[in-house]
Write a structure and sequence with these properties.
The complex is a heterodimer.
Chain A lengths: L1 H19 L8 H29 L3 H21 L18 H23 L5 H16 L22 H13 L5 H26 L1 H12 L2 H8 L4 H20 L5 H14 L3 H20 L8 H26 L10 H8 L2 H17 L7 H12 L8 H25 L3 H27 L17 H4 L2 H4 L6
Chain B lengths: L1 H30 L6 H7 L1 H5 L6 E6 L7 H13 L3 E2 L7 E5 L7 H6 L2 E6 L4 E6 L3
Parallel strand pairs in B: 1-2, 1-3
Antiparallel strand pairs in B: 3-5, 4-5
The chains are: A mainly alpha, B alpha/beta.
């Protein structure tokens, strides 16, 4: 029953995104990308509806089932009854893919899947933060019945009762509809978000840069052991990374298809769900708005570019989930640890140069250690850049700037929060900094391969004049998608 | 072409070898049973859990040493197990859950914390009442 519930949630999300970007149901990059985006969209919608239903009517099984099922039917009807043809997301033109690359990608999938299975079989309840925060909250919400608000008691301040509810809400919803608790729900949710993240990264890179870059990017993400382990740990970081990646990817696609403003609306929705996943998502939401405005100011002279309309769609998309987050924060959630911080101590932390040095040192160390790679991945990426170089398409400059500024601002704010509020900064750096980097990692991989030069891996491929292909090629040949 | 091939092979090789190497580590941990067992911890509390009602607040006491790194984790697991009751990390509550690592109740520990035994659930799990003086 848990899996039926998650299938319904997935269909809800898929129905919504397919209704926004309708195309025939067939095996295509377009539908793979929509199925991947549908995981996060469905999870966000279902958990927001669950929260509102719980708030208005309590833990009523019949009502929760009706609302969840009704949302799925409405989304599917929206998807099936939409008659117009939307933007087609097809593989971007690119060099021929060498035979070994799909093999490496499949090997990465197999290794990631094996790692995930071993970790969840040996630890089905997840790691410490799962059972002291996320799954604990889900248990309170499920077992508490009408006393579900006990989940946010100040007696549980050590379990961060102010954290948003996307993940615990979705788990509690699955348990409620299944009628019993199981470790299967959080494990399946973790798996879905991992699949979704890999799907969005590969799909978006495929639509933006072609099959070769997509397979290399996908192999790198699935080969990031810490990312797979973090997913199996059942923390909120991988779902957050999904929403951050989806927001950035959709804004990249928006800049390739400036006439279709639904990309911005969906990006806004994903950013809103990021805020409903973790407090770091709220930071990202603010950062992405600032980044988008800054990037738009830089590229405002581009033909067909409609910055105001895009921003309005972005804000429209994030409005509903943000309203849910704000209501939760103001009326339901427990006290934040920051509220009890003494201003004098915060100022003392701010003025302490030792904490700034420790933070920067921690960042540098973690940049070299992140991911669980045998060789620091920053060095490997530096080598990749040295060998391949960057070649940024003019169409992608705004999206790259948006993504880079948003990720940079988010990381800076996360570290600043720790610098100001953490009691034991050393422990905080050791336990949090790698997770911060992994939250941003899939979106970072997308931006890296979006900026990298097209790969020439087969002898048949003729090298193109460096830096001039994208700008001087006739427009129809540059187009990777048709819009009807 | 050779530069690009080298770049892709290097990146993929580092990613895949790292995953494979870590996978061997995880397999070793799994086969040697070095994983911290949440299910085993929870099963110790099965009998106590059956008596739990929502909105009950319990105190908590353990025989873990102060500097024992697993002390915090065991407290969190106790709360995880006993939800929706609330467990506070202090023995200063009328009812206290005691988590011991020995089968017999440690009377000295209970007396030092002004606790009297209400029920022994076995496996080192006790429910105690705090004596008001």
């Amino acid at each position: 029953m848990t899996f039926v519930c998650l299938a319904v949630v997935w269909l809800t999300g898929f129905g919504l995104v397919r209704g926004m970007f309708p195309r025939p149901l067939e095996w295509s990059l377009h539908n793979v990308l929509l199925l991947s985006l549908g995981i996060g969209a469905g999870a966000g919608i279902a958990s927001c509806l669950w929260f509102l239903t719980l708030l208005l009517a309590g833990p009523n099984f019949a009502l929760l089932a009706s609302v969840t099922g009704g949302a799925a039917i409405a989304a599917l009807a929206f998807a099936l009854l939409t008659r117009r043809q939307g933007t087609l997301l097809a593989w971007a033109e690119g060099p021929e893919v060498p035979g070994y690359l799909p093999g490496l990608f499949l090997l990465a999938i197999a290794l990631a899947a094996t790692t995930f299975v071993i970790l969840v079989v040996s630890n089905p309840h997840g790691e410490q933060a799962a059972w002291s925060i996320w799954n604990l909250r889900a248990r309170f919400l499920f077992r508490g019945g009408t006393l579900w608000r006990d989940a946010f008691s100040n007696d549980l301040s050590w379990s961060h009762p102010d954290y948003p509810l996307l993940l615990p809400g979705l788990i509690a919803l699955c348990w409620k509809l299944a009628g019993h608790e199981s470790t299967g729900a959080p494990i399946a949710i973790a798996l879905l978000f991992t699949l979704g993240t890999a799907g969005v990264l590969t799909g978006a890179l495929g639509a933006l840069r072609g099959k070769t870059q997509a397979l290399v990017g996908g192999t790198l993400l699935l080969g990031t052991t810490s990312f797979i382990a973090l997913s199996a740990a059942e923390y909120g970081d991988v779902p957050l990374s999904f929403y951050i990646l989806s927001t950035v990817a959709l804004l990249c696609l928006q800049d390739r298809h400036p006439e279709d403003l639904r990309f911005s609306a969906l990006a806004g929705l994903m950013a809103g769900f990021a805020a409903w996943t973790r407090n770091d998502g709220l930071i990202f939401l603010g950062a992405v708005i600032v980044a988008r405005v800054l990037a738009m100011v830089r590229v405002r002279e581009r033909a067909g570019f409609t910055p105001l309309a895009q921003m309005l769609r972005l804000i429209a998309g994030l409005a509903a989930p943000l309203a849910v987050v704000l209501f939760f924060k103001l009326r339901v959630g427990g006290a934040s640890e920051f509220r009890s911080a003494k201003p004098a101590v915060v100022l003392q932390h701010l003025a302490d140069p030792g904490r700034w040095i420790l933070t920067l040192e921690g960042l540098v160390v973690m940049l070299f250690a992140m991911g669980g790679f045998l060789i620091p991945i920053v060095l490997v990426l530096a080598l990749y850049w040295y060998l391949v170089r960057f070649q940024v398409d003019a169409r992608d400059r705004a999206a790259l700037a948006t993504g880079a500024i948003a990720l940079g601002l988010t990381l800076a704010m996360q570290m600043l929060v720790d610098l100001l509020f953490a009691g034991n900064l050393g422990v905080e750096i050791n336990t949090s900094f790698e997770r911060y980097l992994l939250q941003l990692w899939p979106a970072g991989v997308l931006l890296f391969f979006l900026a990298a030069s097209p790969l020439r891996l087969t002898a048949a491929e003729k090298p193109a004049p460096k830096g001039k292909v994208s700008r001087k090629a006739p427009k129809p040949s540059r187009r990777v998608a048709e819009t009807r | 072409m050779a530069r690009h091939t080298l770049a892709v092979i290097a990146l993929a090789a580092v990613a895949l070898c790292s995953t494979f190497w870590t996978l061997l580590d995880f397999l070793g941990d799994y086969s040697h049973n070095r994983i911290f067992g949440v299910a085993a911890f929870e099963s110790r509390f099965d009998e106590l859990r059956k008596t739990i009602r929502p909105r009950t607040v319990y105190g908590y006491l353990s025989d873990n040493a102060r500097n024992d790194p697993s002390a915090g984790a065991e407290f969190y697991l106790t709360q995880y197990t006993l939800a929706p009751a609330i467990v506070k990390p202090t023995p200063d509550e009328p009812l206290v859950v005691v988590n011991l690592h020995v089968p017999k109740p440690d009377q000295k520990l209970l007396q030092a914390n002004k606790l009297v035994l209400v029920q022994n659930f076995g496996s080192g799990v006790l429910l105690c009442r705090r004596v008001q003086r």
